[in-house]
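Dissemination and training. As part of the outreach component of the grant, students in the summer workshop were shown how a complex can be specified as a set of sequence lines and then modelled as a single object. The example used during the hands-on session is reproduced here so that future cohorts can follow it. Participants entered these lines:
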Amino acid sequence: MNTRALPLYATIVIFLLAYAICWLQFPAMLSTRVIGNLLTDNAYLGIVAVGMTLVILSGGIDLSVGSVIAFSGVFIAVLLRDSSLHPLVVFAMLLALTTAFGAAMGFLIHRLAMPAFIVTLAGMFLARGAAYMLSIDSVPITHPFYETIQDAYWLMPGKGRLRLIGILMLLIVLAGMIIAHKTRFGASVYALGGGEATARLMGVRQGRTTILVYAFSGCMAGLSGIVFSIYTGSGYSLATVGTELTAIAAVVIGGTLLTGGAGYMFGTLIGVLTMGLIQTYIVFDGTLSSWWTRIVIGILLLVFILLQKGLLKLSQSRLIEAAADR
Amino acid sequence: MLLSIRSLTKTFPGTLALDGVDFDLATGEVHALLGENGAGKSTLIKCLTGAYHRDGGTVALDGAEIAPRSTVEAQELGIGTVYQEVNLLPNLTVAQNLMFGREPRRFGLINTRAMRAEAREMLRQYGLELDVDRDLGNYSVAIQQIIAIARAVALSGKVLILDEPTASLDAREVEMVFDVVRGLRERGLGIVFVSHFLDQVFELTDRVTVLRNGRKIVTERTADLDRMSLIEHMLGRALEEEVEQQGAGKAAATHPDLLHFEGVGRHGVIEPFDLTIGQGEVVGLAGLLGSGRTESAELIFGVRPAQTGSARDEKGALDLKSPRAAIAAGFGFAPEDRKTDGIVADLSIRENIVLGLQAQRGWARPIPRAEQNRLAEDYIRRLDIRTSGREKPVGDLSGGNQQKVVLARWLAMNPRFLILDEPTRGIDVGAHAEILRLIHDLTGAGMSVLVISSEIEELVAVSDRVIVLRDRRHVAELRGERVAPDAIMRAIARDGTGDGETARCC
Amino acid sequence: MLLKRIAPQLIALAALVLLVTLVYPGFLDISFNDGRLVGPVVDVLKRGAPVALLAVGMTLVIATRGIDLSVGTTMAICGAVAAWAIASGWGLAPALLLALAAGGIAGLWNGLLVAVVGIQPFVATLILMTMGRGIAQLITEGRILTFNHPGFAFFGSGTILGLPVPAWLWLLTGAGVALLMRRSALGMLIEATGINRRASALAGVNATVLLIAVYVASGLCAALAGIVVTADIRGADANNSGLWLELDAILAVVIGGNSLLGGRFSILAALLGALIIQTIDTGILLAGFPSEYNLVIKAALVLVILVLQSPRIAAEWRIWRKSQRASREALAERSRT
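and obtained this result:
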């Protein structure tokens, strides 16, 4: 078995165990209604985490996504309020904008050879500031098209509702899996994360790949912003503060190595659902406070980082021992 | 000729790395490229693979002149390279590594099944049956090297450069790789083989070219050479000359014992060795590159923890688990790679000189500025460090002066035992003599010194005693009259009849 | 020597003050009221305290080639601890000590993860950044924990010799740490570790302990910043205390000319960087611009500094200059013949 896949299995086992514990305590947790809500409530997080997974796989980080989601919401809300454009046109404009924004950050990271976290930190300021400049107040979205998609769902057996945005999230994860595991671009991303110098020797075009990775993340953040605006029915510049951290945590808990080069897109979905599960549990419990979510997520993050560090050491010492035994 | 290089020249600021080198490679030939560190092997290879751009001379492949600008371009021309450090990605699967950049696709997506089959077929040509879906990192270095060779051959297919591919392999694995190389030779590839294991050179190669100080010394058929003459070419010393000087040997002075190391060793790094250092004595470590010279020093100084063995002085046992512990025991170590292990480039000469002393005194007892200035000025004068001022960043100095700054750091701490790893590498002739004189002065004052050097004359000039290393073990000790170039070379060259043929560690 | 080092920051600050004064002529007015100095400049000194305090610790961390992303949440934790201790009637001194201890523990945690476990600094401090606000809320039980304690509030809104206490705090902390660094050998040892950890360790520098120490220092500075903010609003707000201040602190350090790649550092210059940031904040407010512009301006600033510090751009600039010089010389050569 590949040691690389161990964190993924650990993630799946933890998720199933956690779900089993929840189910024992609250049998209602196993209804399609809860599952439908889990997917709907975390749709925006899942989508942005798909972009983040690719960034982290390439050995980078994108701290701007939380702000970009907030900006997207405000951008959509203000344009729908002040113009007569159809939401689909606004969506297209927004996605073009956030994709270009991500590409610009990728360009700077490559061109300046500066750490990704500091460049995307600047991006975080810029996007949040731009959102503030559009509107400080929460802007409600009242467009008939929005009502239509908010009401669109597929009734699962057991009366659970799988809403459109939940389906969209699953489709995006699927698309992410194909991009990461089935394209040459995906292979280049893994190669970069495995080692920049070696990747260049093997023929990876580093600049192009870096720009595409961040452009993809920007696009996903924009899409996530659209979903979030559908979910909340408004745009608010102070929304989704710290979502970048939640997304990073979901990716790492999903078994992706935070230093890049190893991980699975599917794991990210499990990571997102694990976080959703923690929140659902806290809601069901009723006495626990919501801040426990952050603490549990932090602990899980630590456990997975240590687990990966340990696995790395283990596989190295095993190789040395294997060499020494001969 | 498949590949023909004429008067290749490459300069770097301050050094002539390649000085009119000629080199030929025929199809179906394994051609060894030999030389000590700094001889110009890696520069030559980098000029071939496009990592460097040559300053002069011609390189012709199949009769057509080439000037690759990148490794990718070199590959497309037909020149593939496999390095000592496997240049594949351990986090990708074997199949992904083999097929990277030319994965079979269907509807724009990678066709995993076809990729797997193709990878398996490629490896079968090399006699390997592997699970190509496992990560490359799960396989031994030997297998990884063969996979790297397979990829390089598939991408280029004319010339294969093997840059110390066997450095971290054991005897059986070396055979595996050699079988692969022989197979490729039969297929008509030209193979450049760089190694510092002479046994391997004799076993595998058809011709040998030796470089020294950026010049080609000789190209010969391997069968026409013996070990002795090969080592002479590499180390650059005709024995006859030396024999005459040998009489000028030194009186075997007696040195009271200062330090004893017993059974110090580390698995896969250096076989356990005993070493006694006398007070005021200079002990030289001789051996070819990779014989375990630097590794011995690193174990003694605690840079790498020793797995076995102990150290003691006249007062009792010494615990050498870290450089700090070694320093506390009165040791000093000027490492071979000044840039990464020696100097702190952005700090001034003054700060670099007082750094060790200050670390020893602790942060709370700063050395007064006036004292720092005095120390710095003192050593700048004594060691003749050429600089416009003590506040200049060390990174701006030339290599020789950087080396003197590192030496000054240790001298300021007044250690009783100083280890110098290649103290004169990359230093101009004048500074070279100064440093040798300095070693002499230090031991006169009672300091003990361990010198590691690839220059035999240098070792002979400074050492009271020379220990010879081969294949990661201490194999001979020469003292007094016997400290002479021919004896050292014979000890290095002895191909070990009696002590285990091509015996390597384990 | 010292003046030369901080000249760019001084010039930038002076230019900025001039600019703000042009837009808002009363910027430099200072009056003496009720035993305290009053005026926009005094306000800058007071409001700039949290970022200035964080910048002191962050400077040390960045000098070792690290980064501490957790300072904002550490502020929230320490503020919550202090407010909780005051509200539970522990008294002033224990509350302050507890808050500082919390900051020290947070720093120790980060330092151990970085120096001993060997996790990259930004990843290691990300863990505390993620869970820190949860811990703070655990302490405040999700409320804004308010208190009424004049002694503690003094740290936020009191004055000594006419100057606000927060201003004194960062001035003294900055001066104290800067003196400690330069009067002892700490400064040099930290710089050596940041520039070349391996060579420093081979020379006998205890790099592991030094690394842990700088993160502890950063935690303690965050604790002071948390105390100031909590005392100022007389309550601990776990959600907003220190929000985004890690970014301001990093920005202050790099405006101060300290390289993100570690090495030489100047605490004084970082403090000037913090003042520059606060002057921008206050200036925008006084000039009547909406404060939303703040973030955008800061983002632009980071970008400019990144370009200035980029090793790749620097290398290209050198090559360009060299080729320019070469072509100039060739031209001169040609004109001579």
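The first helix of chain A runs from residue 6 to 25. Students were then asked to discuss how this feature might be tested experimentally.
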